[in-house]
Amino acid sequence: MTKSLSKGIFYALLVLFSLFFLIPFYVMVVTSLKPFDEVSIATMWQLPSAINLSSYAQAFAKLVPNFLNSLYIVIPATLISALLGSLNGYVLSKWKFKGSEWVFTALLFGMFIPYQSVLIPLIKTIQVLGLYNTIPGLVLTNVVYGIPLTTLMFRNFYASIPDSMIESAQIDGAGFIRIFRFIIIPLSITGFVVVSIWQFTNIWNEFLFAITITGSEQQPIMVALQNLAGSQIVEWNVQMAGAILAALPTMIVYIFAGRYFIQGLLAGSVKG
Amino acid sequence: MEATNTQKRDTLRQKKKPVSKDKVLAFLFLLPSLILIAVFVYGFIGWTGYVSVSNWNQLIPDMSFVGLDNFSSIFQTFRFQSDLRNMLFFTVFFIAGVVILGQFLAVLIDQKLKGESIFRNIFLFPMALSFVVTGVVWRWVLNPDTGMNIILDGLFGWTPGWYTDTTIVPTLQIGQIDFGIPLALIAVMIAAIWQMTGFSLAMYLAGLRGIPEELREAARMDGATERQIYFKVILPQLQPITFGVIVMMLHISLKIFDLIYTMTGPGANFVTDMPAVNMFETTFRGNYYAEGAAIAIVLLVLVAIFIVPYLIKSRKGEA
């Protein structure tokens, strides 16, 4: 009796909080499907009278080039930072040297800094390299500042590969590269999936570097969305359609690979 | 341990060179990343520090040394004083919200109810979104003329101004500013808690699942009620997780930029401004590079005070 009662209360609470969590999604979808003349302040919560895709047409026309920019940035940046992270994680977990723990800690600090504290030199350097307002400039930036996190994730991941495996491979005459190629890489497919998904999400959603390093032509989607939403003349239904378009890739990743996404979340949280 | 392994390998293979060659090779593969981080993190921080004591407060660089002038002038501005106040209250309530709500939802989901994965997925979903999207959507949901206020007006006849409210409670005159909680920040806190609760939920759920069933069994044998088991046995086990969540949320909260920038901006009377936003606008909109650098250094020091001990501690705990 009391057990089923408390179950009922638990369900009620979970449903209540779920509703709260779903509010923004509901508003986003419903508003984006309305034609402009139905987007009024008074009828915000109402469903559209008929599904209207004109706001999507407008949002797509404005945001598709930026969507592509984001893809051109996120794909190479994710791959390179995952590769570097896996190499670093391998060295820092299986080839420890004197002081390597401190090197790792110093590396890790890089993921906690407020990026404002490197922003002025970063822009000057990117300008000197001729990469200001370019996609390679943002790729470089995201790769560099992604290194601490990907290294951490792979290092935690490789800690579960027993050292005895490495030792017996060494006894069989395999060296640093062969062990990496034939033992570590095959064992870290999941690791690569987890890190790639997590980095994809991070870089896709990144805003500060994007807004400082790129101007209008090369802007990634998040900056374009902010500009779209920040201008007073763009209607709410178009803004919401734009928000959905900007969120779509990471939402799809979450829906189809949520398990790996959560693994990434846990692997990237240093250690409790 | 290391020494015995090396000895074992040496006696087995009767040669020393290949092992040390591999060690050098390993270090060489690590080196590019080390150089990049040394330059892009530590070098750039030093460079920012150099800018922060210079006279570069116009578009054209002027690196002549002015000591701590930029620091003393930012601390005297109404805006930066407001930032520090906002950051303090935002951080406290944001972290409390994420920790309490995440733990609460994790405990609910851990009751082995049917459909728990659906609930878990709903609560974690916002984690996949950008703060930019969150800001854009919540600005619409909490727009004082519509959204929540339609519901609140219908239910209670109450229409809060959300992020447009400039009230500060209580109002204590400190320095140039009114010290207290800016009510406009509540809107930002709601959005930020909505976005980040999934993080603590996932951490707590992993923690709860890691607690062996025997522990509960033993408590049950001793005659503890389910509620006592939770409060006396389970929750104390989660303390290290709470610590980890607080540290992760703390650095997100001190650095917060995207959400403020897209959702509210600095706000009237800077009621929703934050140091990170101030730094960005001072530097790149106002061309006060040296003052912007000074704000950045203050922000960095604030983050480092909490993060560096944590990093050192987790390194030692592992060894």
From TrEMBL, chain A:
Query: Which membrane topology describes this protein?
Result: Multi-pass membrane protein
Q: Which named protein is this?
A: Carbohydrate ABC transporter permease
Gene Ontology cellular-component annotations: plasma membrane
Q: GO:BP terms for this protein? A: transmembrane transport
Q: What PROSITE patterns does its record include?
A: ABC_TM1
Protein family: Belongs to the binding-protein-dependent transport system permease family.
Where found in the cell? Cell membrane; Membrane
Q: Where is the ABC transmembrane type-1 domain?
A: 67-257
Q: Which domain of life is it from?
A: Bacteria
Q: Which PANTHER family match?
A: ABC TRANSPORTER PERMEASE PROTEIN, GLUCOSE IMPORT SYSTEM PERMEASE PROTEIN GLCU
What transmembrane ranges does the database entry give? Answer: 9-29, 70-90, 102-123, 135-158, 179-200, 240-262
Question: Keyword set for this entry?
Answer: Membrane, Transmembrane, Transmembrane helix, Transport
Lineage per the UniProt record: Bacteria, Bacillati, Bacillota, Bacilli, Bacillales
Automatic annotation (TrEMBL), chain B:
Query: Mind telling me which InterPro entries this protein's record contains?
Result: ABC_transporter_permease, MetI-like, MetI-like_sf
Where in this chain does the record put each ABC transmembrane type-1 domain? 84-312
GO BP terms: namely: transmembrane transport
The keyword Transport appears for this protein: yes
Could you list this entry's UniProt keywords, alphabetically sorted.
Cell membrane, Membrane, Transmembrane, Transmembrane helix, Transport
Pfam families named in the record = BPD_transp_1
Topology relative to the membrane: Multi-pass membrane protein
Q: Where in the cell is it found?
A: Cell membrane
Transmembrane intervals: 24-45, 87-109, 121-141, 179-208, 229-254, 288-312
The answer to whether keyword Cell division applies is no
Any Gene Ontology CC annotation: plasma membrane
What family is it from?
Answer: Belongs to the binding-protein-dependent transport system permease family.
The name of this protein is Sugar ABC transporter permease
What is the species of this protein?
Terrihalobacillus insolitus
